[in-house]
Amino acid sequence: MSIHLDDHTTMKERPIQGLSTVRLEAIVLGLVGVWLPPHPPASAQDAKGERRAAGEAAKRADAAPAPATVQVGLRKQLFVDDHVVAETRGVTRELGQVVKANDGKPVLVADKPWENADLFRFGTVIRDGDRFRMWYLMNDDLAGYAESQDGLHWTKPDLGEYEHHGSRHNNIADSRGLACFLDPHETEPAHKYKSAYGHPTKIMACLAHSPDGLHWTSYNGGEPVTGRAADTVNQLCWDEDARTYRLFTRTDFGRGLYAGTLDESRGTRDMINPDVKANPMAWRTVREWCFDREGRWEYKRRQVYSLNGWHYEGVRFGLLWCYEWAGQLGEGTYDLHKRHERDVMNFYIVTARGDEPWDLTWVYAEKPLVPRGPGGSFDKDWIQAAPNVITWQDKHWIYYCGSRERHDIYRLREGPALTRWQCAIGLATLRLDGFVCLQAKEAPGVVLTKPFRLEGDRLEVNADARDGRAIVEVLDGDGDPIEGFARSDAEPLHGMDGLRLRPRWSGKESLDTLVGRLVRLRFHLENAKLYAFQPVR
Predict the structure, then answer these.
(1) Contact present, 266 and 334 (Cβ < 8 Å)
(2) Which of 13, 415, 455, 495 has the greatest CB tally within 10 Å of its CB?
C-alpha cells in the first residue's frame, strides 16, 4: 500500500524516521480508514497458541535491539565516551583530577636577559630518548630551547646559533621548530622532526623538517601550505590509525566589533595529508568550526583560541585553549593578585572517534582539565597547554603556559615599561588513563559493555576502589553470564586502587577458555571509579 502526499512522494517511499514497520503500518491504516476484521480462531487451542505467539512477539518488539559488536583486540578501552559502553545504571561520567607539580609553582621561568616574561609563551615538550626537550616562545621574535632529565628541573643549553647583543652564548633556537614533533612514521633522518609554523608576513601555515629539532628546512620553499588563518599554535602530527598527517590551525569566522574591543570570531580547523614530503599542499579539511551552540553571538562568551590534537588508545583528544568573555575588562585594571573571570583563557579536553565532530561536553559543563590557579598564583588568569601530552612513568604529563593577567589587559596599560601577562611554564600530571571515569558513589552502579571478540587471555582494569569495591563478570554475546565467570564467581576488587588490577574468578584470572568467543563485561561498582580495561596476553 502507498499513500500519496502533496509532494507526490508515497508513504512507502518516504519512511518516517524512528518508527518501526508495525507502527508505520498502523498509522497508514488509520489514515485511510481501513478496518480489518479479526480472524476467528478455529479452536480454543489455536487461540491460546496465537495469544502465546503474540505475547512472544510483543516481548521481542519491546526488547532493545542487540548492540553492535566493537573491535577491541588488545587495545585499552577508555571510558571517555560510550564507544564501548552499551548500558549504564547508577554511575556518572566524571572528569579526572590533575595534580600540579612543584607545589603549583612554575617549572620554567624567564631568567635570561633575552627572555621576556610578558611573552614567555608556549611551544612543545617531547620525551626524546632519555630526556625531555622543550621549545618555547620567549619574546616577540625569539624561540628558546631547554632540556631536562626528570621533566621538573630544566637547563637552557648554550646553543651558539644566534647572536644576541653581540654574543652567541644563549639558548635561542630557530622559531620554525616551536611546535614540532618526533615523527614515528619517518624513515629519512633529515625529516625525523617535523613542525608547522606561521608564515612571517602572511597569516597562513608553513611546514618544516629537521634532523635534530634545532636546524630546520622549510617545505614548499617556505611558502604557506594553507589559507588563512594561522596565528596561534599550528600543529602537525602523525595519525597512526588513519595513516595520515594531521594539521591543526586557527580559522576566522567573520568580523564584527563588540564591547569596543574585539573584532574577530575565532574558530579552528584540522586537515589531513597522507604525505607531506611528496605534496606539502595536498590538505583536505575534515573539521572546521567555531562555538555556536548557544547562538551566533556565542563568540562573546567563548572562542576557540587554539585547538591541538593528540591521539591515545583509539581516542582523538582535542587540547582546547578556550578564550572566555573575550575583551571584557570590567573587573578592573592591572592586578597580579586578583583572580579574574572575564577575558581569561581556560584549557579543556574534547574527544572524538575518527573524523566525527568533537564532543564538547566538558566545555559546556565549564570544567577545565587543568584549572586556573587561585589569586596570586602564576596561572590564575591563563592556562595554555602544550599541543601534546607526554605519557611517562604511568602518568600523563601536561605542560602549560600560565599567566598572571588577562589576554587584553595591555589595552588598559600604556607607556614604555608596559607589562602585560607575566607568564611562566607549569606542569600538571594525571594518573594513567585518568582523563575521565565512570563513578558510582554510595548507591551501586553497573556498566555493561557492548559485545566484542575476546583476544586476550587475561584482563586488566584501571580502577579506584580504595573506599569501595568493583566486581567484573563475563557474559556471552547475548548478555548471559558465562559459567565460572559470573558475578557469584568473581572476587571483588575491594579496597584497591590500581592501573592494572587483575580480576579473578574462583581463584583464577585466566580467560583462555573464552579466547575467540564473543563476550561482554559487566562491571558492578560501589564507591568506585572505573577508568579503563584491557584484554592482555
Answers:
(1) no
(2) 455
Q: Which amino acid is at 39?
A: H
- Three-state SS for 82-141 is CCCEEEEECCEEEECCCEECHHHCCCECCCCCCCCHHHCEEEEEEEECCEEEEEEECCCC
Contact 280, 219 (CB under 8 A): yes
Cell of 327: 575583551
Q: Which of 329, 373, 328 is nearest to 347 (CA)?
A: 373
181 has a pLDDT exceeding 50: yes
What is the tens place of the pLDDT at every residue in 341-400? 999 999 999 999 999 999 999 999 999 999 999 999 999 999 999 999 999 999 999 999
3-state SS class at 63: coil
Cα dihedral angle (158, 161, 165, 170), rounded to 10 degrees?
-20
Question: How far is it, in rounded angstroms, from Cα 134 to Cα 146?
Answer: 5
Residue 267 in grid coordinates: 574558530
What's the rounded Cα separation, in Å, for the pair 473 and 440? 17
Identity of the residue numbered 228 = R
Q: How many CA atoms lie within 13 A of 213 on its CB side?
A: 22
Q: What is the average pLDDT across 465-472? A: 97
Copy the grid coordinates of residue 170: 644563549
CA 266, CA 289: separation in Å to the nearest integer?
9
For 347, the grid coordinates are 584549557
| Res. 36: pLDDT tops 70 | no
- How far lies 10's CA from each of 32, 35, 148, 466, 504, in Å? 13, 21, 70, 61, 58
Please name the amino acid found at residue 483. E
Q: Omega of the bond prior to 229 within 30 degrees of 0, cis?
A: yes
CA pair distance 26, 183, nearest whole angstrom: 60
The C-alpha R_g of the chain, in whole angstroms, comes to 28
**Which pLDDT belongs to residue 7?**
34
**Tell me, what's the pLDDT at 120?**
84
What is the C-alpha to C-alpha distance for residues 167 and 112, in angstroms, rounded to an integer? 13
Structural contact between residues 214 and 201, judged by C-beta atoms closer than 8 angstroms: no
- Tally of CB atoms within 10 A around 112: 14
- Between the alpha carbon of residue 422 and those of residues 103, 109, 261, 270, 426, the distances in Å are 19, 10, 22, 31, 13
Can you tell me the distance from the alpha carbon of 90 to that of 439, in angstroms, rounded to the nearest whole number?
A: 8
The Cα 412–Cα 399 span in angstroms is: 29
Q: Which of 264-268, 274-278, 376-380 has the lowest mean pLDDT?
A: 264-268
